[in-house]
Amino acid sequence: VFFGSWGSANVPIPWKEVETKLFALNVVSEVVLQEGQAFDFSVIMQLVAVLSASRSEELKGFMHIVYRSLADVIGSYSKWISAFQTNARPLLLFLAAGISEAVSSNACASALRKICEDASALIDEPSNLEILMWIGEALEKRHLPLEDEEEVVGAISLILGSVSNKELKNNLLARLLSSSYEAIGKLIDGDNNHSLIHNPATYTQILSSATRGLYRMGTVFSHLPVPLPTNPAGDDPIFALLRVFWPMLEKLFRSEHMENGNLSTAACRALSLAIQSSGQHFVTLLPQVLDCLSTNFVSFQNHECYIRTASVVIEEFGHKDEYGPLFVTTFERFSQAASVRALNSSYICDQEPDLVEAYTNFASTFVRTSRKEVLAASGALLEVSFQKAAICCTAMHRGAALAAMSYLSCFLEECLASLLGYTTSIPEGSFNAMAIQVISHSGEGLVSNVVYALLGVSAMSRVNTSFNLKYAIFFYKKYKY
């Protein structure tokens, strides 16, 4: 692809020609990789060396585009280029410099992730780890787009997760997140609250830093290996992070700052990823976690992220009998919130599609994962949520309608499976008795709403709607008396 005598120190490099060929090399990367015929990438590393050695004032204008194109090629051919130990350090330094430039940041962040995925064993060296830490510790000042920052933090976390020395791993993770801890600490520091209120510019900046810090923390959790249940908690780096993470997050959840939508979303995302990554380490914190989530939703009902995060909790721990009453209480608090109670027409459902999706998905998760005894004790809640879903399935908003219909399907499938497997009389207070009561009370409204969703102007899937209509008619005819 590259030819000519520009490799000589006495011949100026035709950068426009080089950029064109880099672009072409990137375009055909998929075909080249499929054919599996590796070629000499020394010229790529030569370009890396040239651009890395250039002064900042030389890398302006068109040179930023060359930098980006070279980063794209490195990302596309990362498995081949990073196969040699000697390439790791110059590649990391090249990408680290490019991340700080707006034109090349996305390409360099993506290439860094691919290099770390394909060459984790080669990068796991003290000098390379220091380069990664230098990149990570500088993120607070660089203000990258969130998607680029997530790529960078994910790449670094992937490498840190593979470090065999537990003490070193914990120290590096603490260094990576130190700026995040500091940003959140400034927000929840009680001594600063009064001054922040009277300084909107500073408060906005601190809010932004804390939000980014929470995104970084969530990304770190999502890229660390899930601990085995048999591993001692003290040996797990996730447990070490949780000891700092949860007390700080709980204090943040109980502050008035959570009125900010971006901060709430970032905090809920970080918590969801921490729960999914930490396994059983989080189980003892469930009462505090669900109390924070339900309380904050009641206080800030336009932030449906709290319901979505509670769904993650139920998904992970809904099978645990001892926490059944806690899950029921959480469901009840969500259902009694004014915004949820107001979902009594398709028009309102169309005005609040995110809330409809969050609430009905939570209800689906609750029904799917909870024990039958817990569901039997939740008859009143399930009846209310079932009736809400029957109304919401007529909404024009496709996402809201499909989420509502999915919950109806989930509930009816659970009922059908249980009732068909029961040949004796149905005892009072059982799941089957509750199911019959809910369907007999809600069947007529369900049938009419599902028929409307099938034949009306809403954007519902005909297959799902027809499926639920058959269920609804079957149950209503069988149990209406």
Automatic annotation (TrEMBL):
Transmembrane regions: none
Classification via InterPro entries: ARM-like, ARM-type_fold, Importin_beta-like_NTR, TPR_TNPO3_IPO13_4th
Pfam families in the record: TPR_TNPO3_IPO13_4th (PF24139)
Listed name of the protein: Exportin-1/Importin-beta-like domain-containing protein
Organism: Citrus sinensis (Sweet orange)
Native organism taxonomy: Eukaryota, Viridiplantae, Streptophyta, Embryophyta, Tracheophyta
